[in-house]
Amino acid sequence: MMIKKRQGYRILICLLGIVAMQLAIEEYRLCNLVYAVRIKDIAAFKGIRTNQLVGYGLVVGLNGTGDKGGAEFTIQSMVSMMERMGIQLDKTQLKVKNVAAVMVTADMPPFARTGSKLDIVVSSIGDAKSLAGGTLLLTPLRGVNNKVYALAQGPIAVGGIGASGAGGGTSVNHLLSARVVNAATIEREVPITLNKKKKLTLSLFQPDFTTVQRIADTINASIGSLVATAIDAGAINLDIPENIQSNVPKLIADIENLHVVPDTRAKIVVNEKTGTVVIGENVSISTVAVAHGNLSITITETPQVSQPPALTEGQTVTTPQTNIEIKQDQVSLMVVPGGSTIGDLVRALNAIGVSPRDLISIFQAIKAAGALQAEIEII
């Protein structure tokens, strides 16, 4: 009976150990998942991109707020448009204060089909005062290859208001640029074929050797075969298995939703204009002592008036009196032991009353001393 009880205890202890190990593994997985991001948020597939379109057009129907007579390109555009409609005009007699020349831009997303709508941005290029209440005439939008991919036309809603008089004026919001929703129609598609592809390239937004290898390992573990190979710090080559080549979009969707913990370089970003300091997670500091103190010098000028005695020929003279005050705060000494975390560093700096702008000088001094293992980037 005693032997059976001992065996039962051993089995129970083994089961408890297995359960504890599984709980530890699950806790580790959940901790990593907190810092993990989707692959689609840090990388994109090569060739699947947005294309920029641009066009030149005219906005008509303005209430006297269009381009002035000196805008020669607006007059030429009006004359050319009228001639195409069979109307002959003398450009010297043409007034364009109700017309404005504009540039029209749009972003054409990947896989956009003929007939789909695009948002456009209309911006004045002349000396118009406002585009409010105007209508954009039919404008072809071209790509970098000079081919027309979309046509834009429609009323413009500026979202602001302005008024002026002989002595000045006032306005609310910007009146010379407007975003118009669904004002362009796609007329030509950018061909992208995914099925039957044998290879794909995944490009990282922020190249990093550690991150790119983690992505490749995660993709291989998910698919169950060696299909992903890191080319360099910014790209991964994917060899698509033959049994998946007929359904490449599903493969891309599965890869994009995989989670990876990206690695980052130890970096401190400093904006000297605003006094903003951002410290990265991997920043480490060796043992160092920091002394911090402020020296302020105040100079004031006090005028002194000197008047001559009565019934004399002297003159009243004003002489400046200069007062100089020098004040030095008590110097505080802080010791940061090696291997300190960011939290330890921040608490220590706050304890000696360091301002954000003082942090900039302190970090630069620690870096110069060789005790800061991080890159300092000044923007």
Compile the SSE list and pairings:
Layout: H1 2-35, E1 37-38, E2 43-45, E3 51-60, H2 72-84, E4 100-108, E5 117-124, E6 135-142, E7 148-155, E8 161-164, E9 169-172, E10 177-186, E11 199-204, H3 209-223, E12 228-230, E13 235-239, H4 248-256, E14 259-260, E15 267-271, E16 276-279, E17 284-285, E18 288-292, E19 295-306, E20 317-328, E21 332-336, H5 342-351, H6 356-368, E22 372-373, E23 375-378
Parallel strand pairs: 15-23
Antiparallel strand pairs: 1-14, 2-11, 3-4, 3-6, 4-5, 5-10, 6-7, 7-10, 8-9, 11-13, 12-13, 15-16, 17-22, 18-21, 19-20
Describe the structure.
By secondary structure, the chain is α+β, with helices and mostly antiparallel strands. The radius of gyration is 35 Å and the shape is flat. It has helices spanning 2-35, 72-84, 209-223, 248-256, 342-351, 356-368; strands spanning 37-38, 43-45, 51-60, 100-108, 117-124, 135-142, 148-155, 161-164, 169-172, 177-186, 199-204, 228-230, 235-239, 259-260, 267-271, 276-279, 284-285, 288-292, 295-306, 317-328, 332-336, 372-373, 375-378. The strands form eight sheets. It has a six-stranded antiparallel beta barrel. A four-stranded antiparallel beta sheet has the order 2-11-13-12, covered by helices on one side. The chain has a three-stranded mixed beta sheet with strand order 16-15-23, with helices on one face.
